Amino acid sequence: MKVLEIIPSGDACGAEVRGVDLGEGLKDVVFDEIDAAFNKHSVIVLRNQSITPEQHIDLSDRLGGIVPHTFSEFCHPDYPQIFRISNLIEDGKPLGYEKAGVTWHTDQSYIETPPRCTTMFALEVPEKEGKSFGDTLFASTVAAYNALSDDMKIRLRGLKAVHQFAARKRRLGRESELSEAQKLLNPDVVHPVVRTHPFTGRKCIYVLEGECTGIVGMDDAEALPLIKELSDHIIRPEFIYRHKWRQGDLIIWDNCALQHRAESDYELPLRRHMHRTSVNGTSTF
């Protein structure tokens, strides 16, 4: 019988879970331990996995069920619950979404009930001369909140920020990638500037420059600098865990307790191909 080990990263977030083969299925008691480790560490990695799309979907369902993705053209043709992130080309067309996550963000904060977590399985990782590329950086919004001054914590109480679907694309000069139908299906939403984590009760800063367009009841002259100040604070080096991908990694990250960003430091012929799911969350409070 394998012994489950939880190895913390030593950073503000992150842990490796050892002694688990997802391909063999998970007993409830083992799943509960993994779920507890995830809630504690915010991002966990299970290395050397070999799973089918069905097993990936099953894990996501156990975590809370799958959120449909806005960019459905990049979903797996046989398993639409799975979103493909890839720089590969097949028959002259992109096999997946290549430019995912190149700025700091939390997944789908622009919807009314943002995902609890995201899972990503590494099928191919860009490598050259023994070095991997395309790291993902995770910033703990819990640690960032805890490090705020008491005065700032008081200032943020009760504030709500406006999250806009098109804003991040606009900031990158890529708004033309969005259809009018996608924009209409994703109107502006409002979330607390400081969220309470639904599983741990911990406080998390939940704003990001470029996607948050304002704060309810506050003039932009005050709101936008505050959003920038908080966004810059979240990504301070002491709050960050850098994940260096290996083929067979399965990562689960928390979209309330973290922000993340993917490094775009590779190009073909270096190949990157990932399967991703987004897992249902709860209303924000």
When the domains are counted, the total is 2
Give the uncertain stretches in residue-range form.
Answer: none
List SSEs in N-to-C order: EEHEHEEEEEEEHHEHHEEEEHEEEE
Number of helices: 7
Largest sheet: 7 strands, mixed
Class derived from helix and strand content = alpha+beta
The average pLDDT value, as a whole number, equals 93
Radius of gyration, in Å, reads 19 Å
The count of strands amounts to: 19
Q: What is the correct CATH architecture of the largest domain?
A: 4-Layer Sandwich
Global outline? globular
Q: Indicate the CATH topology of the largest domain.
A: Double-stranded beta-helix
Q: List the strand order in the largest sheet.
A: 1-2-3-17-7-19-4
CATH H-tier superfamily of the largest domain: Clavaminate synthase-like
Question: For the record, what CATH class of the largest domain applies?
Answer: Alpha Beta
Strand content: 25-35%
Q: Whole-Å distance between the termini?
A: 41 Å
The level of helicity is: 10-25%
Could you walk me through the main structural features you see in this protein, from its secondary elements to its overall organization?
By secondary structure, the protein is of the alpha+beta class. The chain has 2 domains: 5-102 and 116-123 and 245-279, Double-stranded beta-helix; 139-234, 4-Layer Sandwich (Double-stranded beta-helix), CATH 3.60.130. It contains 7 helices and 19 strands. It has helices at residues 28-41, 53-63, 141-146, 150-156, 167-171, 180-185, 220-234; strands at 5-8, 15-18, 43-46, 83-86, 89-90, 93-94, 117-124, 127-128, 131-132, 136-140, 160-163, 189-192, 194-196, 203-205, 212-215, 240-243, 250-254, 258-262, 273-279. Strands 1-2-3-17-7-19-4 form a 7-stranded mixed β-sheet, covered by helices on one side. Strands 16-10-18 form a 3-stranded antiparallel β-sheet. A 3-stranded antiparallel β-sheet has the order 12-11-15. The model has no long low-confidence stretch (mean pLDDT 93).
